[in-house]
Design the sequence.
């Protein structure tokens, strides 16, 4: 069993829809990261959080430490949001990565 | 199990020495490998992208003569931190991608330069 599980693995949405990607982890963490990768590119860090909630533009990330769960929300989705979204957790000594959620937003 | 390994997992070295970090894809051919760095209390930063058999593409602000990347085979990429200094102390992570497979990340290498 992977230390980090994401769902769904693939997601297709219509432009304008509200999107949620979930991440569950099984290890004690110092921080959780949400990363974005566009086709052919390296990853871009969206959020690093250890508690509560963060917001950047149309993106919102939340984390529940007790439940070991995080969600990434995209409001008013746009085709340019199409990418792979990866959840990663750091324990201080090691990183654990989910395999990503492939998001396609259709115009 | 892990599909991307890194070696060593941690290393301590003296200032001025060079350190080599290996990234291996264990059961697939990685046509592209990425190297990232994480500063304390910050998120990951992409350093460079390497495609097997060609020169690495470095991100702006990353010194290519300081961080030498070699991707000589489809299962191995190396990052050499040349003449390391204390400010190079960081967590270095590689990821690998090949064919239809998703990108997999290595567990990281912690470097401490004294």
Sequence:
């Amino acid at each position: 069993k992977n230390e980090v599980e994401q769902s769904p693995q693939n997601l297709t949405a219509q432009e304008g829809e509200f999107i949620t990607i979930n991440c569950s982890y099984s290890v004690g963490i110092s921080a959780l990261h949400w990363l974005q990768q566009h086709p052919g590119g390296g990853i871009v860090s969206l959020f690093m959080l250890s508690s509560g909630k963060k917001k950047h533009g149309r993106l919102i990330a939340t984390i529940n430490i007790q439940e070991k769960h995080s969600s990434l929300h995209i409001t008013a989705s746009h085709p340019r949001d199409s990418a792979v979204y990866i959840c990663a957790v750091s324990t201080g000594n090691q990183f654990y990565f989910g395999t990503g959620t492939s998001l396609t937003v259709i115009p | 199990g892990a599909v991307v390994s890194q070696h060593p997992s941690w290393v301590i070295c003296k200032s001025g020495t060079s350190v080599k970090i290996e990234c291996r894809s264990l059961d697939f051919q990685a046509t592209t490998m990425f190297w990232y760095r994480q500063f304390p209390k910050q998120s990951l930063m992409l350093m460079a992208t390497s495609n097997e058999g060609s020169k690495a593409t470095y991100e702006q602000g990353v010194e290519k003569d300081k961080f030498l990347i070699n991707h000589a085979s489809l299962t191995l990429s190396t990052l050499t931190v040349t003449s390391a200094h204390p400010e190079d102390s960081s967590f270095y992570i590689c990821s690998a991608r090949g064919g239809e497979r998703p990108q997999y990340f290595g567990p990281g290498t912690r470097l401490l330069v004294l």
Summary: The CA atoms of residues 2 and 37 of chain B lie 20 Å apart. The longest strand of chain B covers residues 44-51. Chain B has a mean pLDDT of 88. The interface with chain A takes residues 9-10, 34, 36, 38, 42-46, 49, 59, 91, 93, 95, 102-105, 107-108, 110 of chain B (CB under 8 Å).
